[in-house]
């Protein structure tokens, strides 16, 4: 290849580099900045920050916890849904879910509860906090997953035909007076002994007598995929009204009146479910019905 051709090719490449640097390195970011500065879009571009008394208190788009220093729910506030983002939840730098799926029903150890046990314990806690029935299918009265390991000979499909031993895998011995179920197919149910492996058995979740439509809604006991959801369902908001009203020394109807202004319908009229933005609602309650000592 002639030296002149090499020079022309490199000069063409350099010109393309300069053009695209100007267009994409300066022009495109400038265009986006100008669009973000349009009235009506500027607030969203800045993170939809919400202020109170002139100070930023959070973003409309990112949830946060309303708890005390020990992690206990503050009774005067509506509570957000659980979050798996970061060690304490709602960490924007660690957005994500728990990576636990519907097959996570057996607790690895007390420090690593299954998704089922997390749901059961949250439902029981919320039921106690809100004064409603916190029971739900496949949960024990103690708030763990109602799951048995059924040990015995199996048929060609892998199902145990004649149980010889049955263990409540999520109820370690000593944590409860007795397993949630006395007998399973004529075999007495045992508590789980520390260090023993019950994976040899067939894992059988027990539905129990809880209603099919739990009083505590699903978003109250499960984290969102991002872990940053700022909204809760209207059903979860409704069961919190009585507690918030009592803490603020007003009637439930007064709280419902404020709540009604913060109910948002389905996106575009048909996507998702109606929701309530927790931060906006709590700030309005602080303004309308402040807590007095």
Descriptive report:
It is flat and about 90 Å long. Helix 4 (234-248) packs across helix 5 (252-260). The model has no long low-confidence stretch (mean pLDDT 90). It has six helices and ten strands, in the order H-H-E-E-H-E-E-E-E-E-E-H-H-E-E-H. It has 293 residues and is of the alpha+beta class.
> How confident is the prediction overall: mean pLDDT?
90
| β-sheet strand percentage | 5-15%
Q: What is the assembly state of the chains in this entry?
A: single chain
Share of helical residues: 25-40%
Poorly predicted runs: none
Distance linking N and C termini: 87 Å
Radius of gyration: 27 Å
Q: Based on DSSP secondary structure assignment, what is the total number of beta strands? A: 10
What profile does the largest beta sheet have?
A: 5 strands, mixed
- Judging from the principal axes of the Cα atoms, what is the shape? flat
Q: Main sheet: which strands, in order across?
A: 5-6-4-3-7
Write the H/E string, N to C. Answer: HHEEHEEEEEEHHEEH
Helix/strand structural class? alpha+beta
Can you count the helices?
A: 6
């Amino acid at each position: 290849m002639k030296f002149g051709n090499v020079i022309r090719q490199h000069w063409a490449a350099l010109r393309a580099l300069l053009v695209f640097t100007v267009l994409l390195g300066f022009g495109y970011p400038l265009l986006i900045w100008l669009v973000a500065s349009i009235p009506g879009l500027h607030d969203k571009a800045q993170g939809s920050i919400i202020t109170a008394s002139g100070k930023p208190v959070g973003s409309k788009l990112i949830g946060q916890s309303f708890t005390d220093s020990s992690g206990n729910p503050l009774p005067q506030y509506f509570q957000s849904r659980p979050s798996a983002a970061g060690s304490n939840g709602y960490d924007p730098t660690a957005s994500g879910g728990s990576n636990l799926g519907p097959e996570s029903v057996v607790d690895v150890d007390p420090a690593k509860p299954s998704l089922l046990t997390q749901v059961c314990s949250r439902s029981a806690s919320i039921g106690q906090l809100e004064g409603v029935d916190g029971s739900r299918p496949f949960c024990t009265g103690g708030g763990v997953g109602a799951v048995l390991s059924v040990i015995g000979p199996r048929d060609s499909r892998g199902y145990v035909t004649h149980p010889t031993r049955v263990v409540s895998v999520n109820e370690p011995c000593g944590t409860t007076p007795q397993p949630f179920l006395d007998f399973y197919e004529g075999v007495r149910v045992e508590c789980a002994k520390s260090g023993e492996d019950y994976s040899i058995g067939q894992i059988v979740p027990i539905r129990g007598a809880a209603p099919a439509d739990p009083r505590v809604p699903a978003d109250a006991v499960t984290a969102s995929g991002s872990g940053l959801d700022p909204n809760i369902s209207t059903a979860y908001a409704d069961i919190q009204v009585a507690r918030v009203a009592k803490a603020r020394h007003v009637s439930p109807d007064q709280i419902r009146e404020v709540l009604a202004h913060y109910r948002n319908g389905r996106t575009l009229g048909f996507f998702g479910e109606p929701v309530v933005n927790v931060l906006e609602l709590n700030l309005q309650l602080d303004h309308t019905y402040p807590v007095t000592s």
